[in-house]
Amino acid sequence: LFGSVEKDADGKITEINVSKVRHLNNLRKTIFKGANVKTGTHVKTGTQVVQTESISFDWVDWESNDYVSDWTKNPMENFPAIDCGNLLNGGGYNGGGNVLKGFAFTGTNSGLFDSLERATLTEMRFADCSSKGTNAGILAGSLINCTVTDCGAYLNTKNKDNARYEDMDTR
Description:
- The chain contains one helix and 17 strands.
- By secondary structure, it is an all-beta fold.
- Strands 1-2-3-6-11-16 form a six-stranded mixed sheet. It has a four-stranded parallel sheet with strand order 4-7-12-17, with no helix packed on it. A three-stranded parallel sheet has the order 5-8-13, with no helix packed on it.
């Protein structure tokens, strides 16, 4: 499901490491059943998600182990906002300064996440992303009592010929 997970002495997940689009997709409460803290007792309250490398939504940037098969590539036209239930409430997402690139977020609450409460979001970078929905943002459609530190969105990453600037991730 993920790049890796870390557990405490009781075997409860305290950290989830992500480095691929499929890892982000697997945070959805419909896929990762531990995302519902009320019923999934194997996830500790205050779980941290840590992005360990840059993630591009554009499948032409993917390596062969990033997708299930060569013929499917990236089957998603848009990336629906992640509804991870209570997984990150009281926890957070640390982007590690790595970039999320080329995502087109959709949903009623549109952004990387649908809605977060009491989460801490740090060192997240978005390059060439868009968001469309009733409540649209890049981080989330709704943030309630959250802390956002050192996060940024860079929207002008293509030149007049529609080619990506190679150095935008470091700007």
